[in-house]
Amino acid sequence: MISDYLTGIESELKETKPERHNAVIQSIAKWIADELKKGATPNLNFICTHNSRRSQFAQTWSVMVQAWLGLNFTRSYSGGTEVTACNERTVAALIRAGLKASSKGDGNPVYTLTDPESEKSVRLWSKLFDDATNSVDRFAAIMTCDHADDNCPFIPAAELRIPFTYTDPKFADDTEQEESAYDETCKMIATDMIRIYRAVQKIRNGK
After folding, report:
1. Angle between helical axes of 54-69 and 88-97 (0-180°, round to 10)
2. Burial of 179 per CB tally in 10 Å (0-12, 13-18, 19+)
3. Disulfide-capable partner of 145 in 48, 78, 119, 126 (CB 3.0 to 4.6 Å)?
4. pLDDT band with cut points at 50, 70 and 90 for residue 35
5. Is the pLDDT of residue 137 over 90?
């Protein structure tokens, strides 16, 4: 179950206190808290080149971690600089984490990932970062891969642009390490989403 998966991650956090992305996490959390203080809804757009792996993990866990914590701080999107498809290995890792999945369409199918406990769901498919479904007046551009960060120098309407990069699990495709590589990336991104939203809570509570 997702609650067990995320509770286990948070228990590990209390023991390990990872330093990965510390400054970035604090910057994102502060931006979210500042937007909330203004009475605005923070919009997070997670961007990688193909919108098929890391950005999809980030969008999913941004939604699911908030639901698990009983929060409704942000709206979460994802996009790429090219359109391909949400990789089926990404979806498989999310299923192993406890989500249920269904899909509609071919080529670039739309996957619906649902937490059976909270009934919270997120729809995943590959699209450009400025796709009409991502259309908002202002947002934070969270760059989850170096390639997209380097090759997309200007993102209109981005109030914050910040590198939040991860190694692409694609390196393990069709090898014995494939499943473990995707599971590791999935868990790493879920962990960082917990860290972000816990940091927002601390800022709002004056801690």
Report:
1. 20
2. middle
3. 48
4. very high
5. no
* Domain segments of the chain as ranges: 2-15+24-165+173-204
Taking a C-beta distance cutoff of 8 angstroms, is the pair 140, 160 a contact?
yes
CA 2 to chain centre: 15
What is the CATH code of the structural domain delimited by 2-15+24-165+173-204? 3.40.50.2300
Angle among Cα 41, 47, 156 to the nearest 5 degrees reads: 65
Q: How far apart are CA 76 and CA 41, in angstroms?
A: 10
Q: What pTM value is reported for the model?
A: 0.94
20/4 Cα distance (integer angstroms): 23
What are 68-125's pLDDT values in tens digits?
Answer: 999 999 999 999 988 999 999 999 999 999 999 999 989 999 999 999 998 999 999 9
Round to whole Å and give the CA distance between 187 and 91. 13
What DSSP state is assigned to residue 117?
A: T
Residue at 158: amino acid letter: A
- SS3 of residue 75 by DSSP: strand
Going across the sheet that includes 75-79, the strands are 75-79, 43-47, 139-143, 158-163
